[in-house]
Amino acid sequence: MKASTQLISAAVFALSTAGIISAGTALAEEPQFEKCYGIAAAGKNDCQTATSSCAGTSKHDRQTDAFIAVPQGTCSKIAGATLEAK
């Protein structure tokens, strides 16, 4: 096989492979998350609460106004968890 034919074959293969890879990633969906209150361990909350100014500052385990983000539909399956702060 000539060098130019090999080069063309390699280019066609590379382009077809890139098309397959990008088509596969286009089908993947972004995961959806929800705020789940009352389950974070002390200092492990994702964002500010009514009593603390930023993430990672909750004072005690299962603080009712502290949340962590969990995959959509998961919070309702966790004992003691709620979708709203108390």
UniProtKB/TrEMBL annotation:
Pfam family, one: DUF2282
InterPro entries for this protein: DUF2282_membr (IPR018740)
Alphabetically ordered keywords of this record: Signal
Protein name per Swiss-Prot or TrEMBL: DUF2282 domain-containing protein
Signal peptide range in chain numbering: 1-28
